[in-house]
Specification:
Two copies of one chain form a homodimer.
Chain A lengths: L6 H17 L6 H8 L3 H7 L3 H25 L5 H18 L1 H9 L1 H11 L8 H9 L6 H19 L1 H5 L3 H13 L3
Helix pairs in contact in A: 1-2, 1-4, 1-6, 2-3, 4-5, 4-7, 4-8, 5-9, 9-11
Chain A binds a DNA duplex (18 and 18 nucleotides) through helix 3.
DNA sequence: GTCTATATTTCGATAGAC
DNA sequence: GTCTATCGAAATATAGAC
C-alpha cells in the first residue's frame, strides 16, 4: 500500500496547508493532520522531523515563488524602483492568483513563520519574504510618498485577491482583472 | 499594594495586547502574561474567567470602535454605499490611526477572534467586525467593480497604516496623510 | 512506511489558604 | 486580590515492533 512514490509527503503538506489556513498553525495539531490523512501521528515523523519542519517546507515553496521578484527588486538601482513597480505588481498579482492558498497561509500565520525561520536558519536573515519586502519600503532614498503608494498597492492586491473566494463567491474569477486595473490607478 | 482601582484588569489587557501582537494569541501563554506583570497565573483568573475571555474583552473594545461605522453602513440604502464610501474610509483611517494595536491584533489573530466569538456568543452572528464588513462586500446589488475598489481601499489602508511604525520608523507620522491621499485616488 | 505505546512538557484551569 | 499547589487534558516527540 501507501503511495507508490514520495507522494505521501505532498499529501501531508496539502492537508497541513488547508488546516493551517482554516484554523491557524498553532491551533492545528499533528493528530488532526494525521487523522484526515488516515494515518497516525507517528507516521508524520517519518516524513518531517517536527511540526515546524512542515511549516518550513511550505515557506520554501513560497520562497521559490517570491524569490525571482525580490531578487530583481534587490538588484534594481534605487532610482529605478518606482518606475519598475507597476510591472512588478503585475507579476505579483499573477503569483498570488496562481498560488492563493500559499500566500494566504503566510499572511495568516506571519508570526509562526518568523519563529520557525529564525529557529532553523541562523544564516543571513534574508529568508523571510515579508522581511525582505519590508526593507524595500524602508529604503529612505526613495521618496516617502512613493513608498507609501507601493505599500498601499500591495495591501490592495492582498485584500482584493486573497479573500476573493470567500467574499466574492462565484464572481471571484472576474475579480483578478478588476483588482489589476484598480491597483494600477494608484501607481 | 496592588493597584488602588480596577487598574490591574487594564494592565493585564495591555500586556496581553502587546504579547498577542508580538507572538500571536495561541503562542502566548497565561504564564508569560502573568510573569511580565509580576504576578502568578492564578491571579489572572480573578480578573478573567478564561484566556478566551481576555481576547473577548479586546474584541469588545474594537467592536465599540467599529460599531458606529458599520451600523451606519448597514442602514445605508444599497445604492448610496458607493457614494458614501470615501467619507467612511476617512473615518476608518482615523480609527486605525488612533488605535493601531487594537486593529493589528485583530488582523493578526482573525481565526482566534472568530472562535472565541462563536463559542461565547450564540446571539446574532453579527458580532465580528470582519464578518459584517465581508457581508457588505458580498452585496451583489452593488456593482462588482465598485466592491473591488472598496476592498482594495481597505487593504491599502491596513497595509499602509498598521505596519507603518515597523516599516517607516520615525517617518510614520507623515504616513497617515499620504495614505489618505493615496487611497482617495482610487475612489 | 506505518503502527502501538509511551515519554515529556506545557498549557488552561481550579481549590483553598492568606 | 494574590498566593501555592495541583489536576487533567492535550500537545510534540521518540522508541521499537512489524
Amino acid at each position: 500500500m501507501a503511495e507508490a512514490r514520495g507522494d505521501t509527503r505532498n499529501r501531508i503538506l496539502d492537508v497541513a496547508l488547508e488546516l493551517f489556513n482554516d484554523q491557524g498553525y498553532d491551533a492545528t495539531s499533528l493528530r488532526e493532520i494525521a487523522e484526515r490523512l488516515g494515518v497516525t501521528k507517528a507516521a508524520l515523523y517519518y516524513h518531517f522531523k517536527s511540526k515546524a519542519d512542515i511549516l518550513l517546507e511550505l515557506h520554501l515553496r513560497l520562497h521559490d515563488l517570491g524569490d525571482d521578484l525580490l531578487a530583481e527588486l534587490d538588484q534594481l538601482p534605487d532610482d529605478q524602483v518606482v518606475a519598475a513597480w507597476p510591472g512588478l505588481v503585475d507579476r505579483f498579482i499573477d503569483a498570488v492568483t496562481e498560488n492563493r492558498d500559499l500566500f494566504l497561509v503566510h499572511q495568516r500565520n506571519q508570526r509562526a513563520f518568523e519563529q520557525v525561520i529564525n529557529d532553523e536558519r541562523h544564516q543571513q536573515a534574508n529568508q523571510d519574504i515579508e522581511e525582505r519586502f519590508r526593507r524595500v519600503l524602508a529604503n529612505d532614498v526613495i521618496p516617502l510618498a512613493d513608498r507609501v503608494r507601493m505599500a498601499c498597492s500591495i495591501g490592495a492586491v492582498m485584500v482584493g485577491l486573497m479573500g476573493a473566494d470567500e467574499i466574492f463567491g462565484d464572481e471571484a474569477a472576474q475579480v483578478v482583472g478588476l483588482v489589476r486595473s484598480t491597483v494600477h490607478e494608484l501607481l
